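Researcher: We plan to redesign the surface later, but first we want a full-length starting point. Tokens attached.
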């Protein structure tokens, strides 16, 4: 196993309900370290670019509107197998399919307002971290 970094976003449905601490506890209890974190309001252009891979999907416009509906917490998580580990801690995209104890099972409101984003592979993790964080912000 290798130590990896992955991008996490605590989404507006969760910041609105003041769940940042509870979600961070899930990451930390799951063996991940929060090595960078900042709370921001995304612009429409930033959300569209970040989710550009989904541009052709029917839910794209709603997803962008949701992601700019309130502040998000951008994070870099670090640990052994962090990319896959974070996806396990998050649970399935649709909370109806998410396993017991996962963030999405416990906190998600819907398939769209599902509380967290996590990178899905090594290349996207590197791209997504670089999209939101400067090297000087990552101290490990
Ligand atoms: P994940 O976040 O689990 O990697 P995807 O990359 O497939 O999932 O989708 C990105 C985000 O788009 C999801 O987290 C969710 O907020 C939203 N989304 C995905 N599928 C749907 C859908 N069928 N209807 C509404 N929103 C969706
Ligand atoms: Mg995804």
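Model: Full-length starting sequence:
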């Amino acid at each position: 196993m290798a130590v990896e970094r992955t991008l996490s976003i605590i989404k507006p449905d969760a910041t609105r309900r003041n769940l940042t601490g509870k979600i961070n506890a899930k990451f930390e209890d799951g063996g991940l370290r929060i090595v960078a974190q900042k709370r921001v309001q995304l612009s429409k252009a930033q959300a569209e670019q970040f989710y550009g891979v989904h541009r052709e999907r029917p839910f794209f416009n709603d997803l962008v509107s949701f992601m700019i509906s309130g502040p998000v917490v951008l994070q870099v998580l670090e640990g052994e197998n962090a990319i896959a580990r974070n996806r396990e801690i998050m649970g399935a995209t649709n909370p109806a399919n998410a396993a017991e104890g996962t963030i999405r099972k416990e906190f998600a409101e819907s398939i769209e307002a599902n509380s967290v984003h996590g990178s899905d592979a090594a290349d996207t993790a590197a791209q997504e971290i670089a999209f939101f964080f400067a090297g000087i912000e990552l101290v490990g």
